[in-house]
Amino acid sequence: MSSQTLEETRAELDAPRSGFGHALRAEWIKLWTVRSTWWTMSALIVLGAGLTTLICWGNASWLASSDADESPGSFITWGMMIAQVCAVIVGTLAVTSEYGTGMVRTSFAAVPHRGAVFAAKAIVVCGVLFVVGTATAVLGYLGGNYFLDREGIGLALEGDVARAMYGSGLYLAALGLLSMAVGFLVRHTAAAISIVLATVFVIGNMVMLIPGELGDFITKVMPGNAASSLVAPVSFNPEALGAWTGFGVLMGEVAALCALAWWLLRTRDA
């Protein structure tokens, strides 16, 4: 063995191994160095805060009248119902974009423990969506409450209203994690986004057609419905699960899907 080969081998042995901190930093860089993240986050803020402000502006006078059959608290986070589409896209693209380009093989070569890659992606995606989601809900509250205040029905940022602000961030983080898990399962951007959006928006409403108590139960525990009370001071659906009960149900569903995605990630080829 030549002296050059010995030196190269020694250098490889002495090189620092990639730890979980390196994986976190890599996932952070990968998330923010693609234009789709910036566009999607911008859309999340515009839709979440902008639509809440617009809806409150358009309904403030009606909500203040005696004809109103809804609470102002049902509208103060209204835009977050649409902004959740952006959370689905962010969570999905964090996974499927790498499978689409083949870069996932590089990620697994740099961090052979695939579970660490999964965990690092989950922490980064959930952390970003929680912060952006909470900030967006607060912006929507400030804009929407301005018009509610003008009609004398403004809401103080306390109690259930304050809970709805960070609850919106928690819900978007959970939805991003759910989308990540589906992304690892199907490895295709369009398919993963379609599956999650269909589950949240379409199937979640269609199950209402199932008669009896079974239909009521399934409707309450669907991912898009379970945490509906968490993201609004007053839910549009009085039969919905309680705020933290519903969030617990949602997190149980997300955890089960993540466990399946984690197992498949470690057992099948990249």
Could you give the order of the helices and strands? HHHHHHHHHHH
What is the tally of helical segments? 11
Binned, the helix content reads over 70%
Average pLDDT reading: 89
Protein name: ABC transporter permease
Organism: Aeromicrobium yanjiei
Keywords: Membrane, Transmembrane, Transmembrane helix
What does this structure look like?
The chain has helices spanning 3-14, 20-32, 35-64, 80-101, 104-110, 114-150, 160-186, 189-206, 212-221, 223-226, 243-267. The chain has 270 residues and is mainly alpha-helical. The chain has one domain (19-267). Helix 4 (80-101) runs antiparallel to helix 8 (189-206). The two termini are 35 Å apart. The model is unreliable at 8-15 (pLDDT under 50).
Give a nutshell description of this structure.
The protein has 270 residues and is mostly helical.
Helices and strands in order:
Elements: H1 3-14, H2 20-32, H3 35-64, H4 80-101, H5 104-110, H6 114-150, H7 160-186, H8 189-206, H9 212-221, H10 223-226, H11 243-267
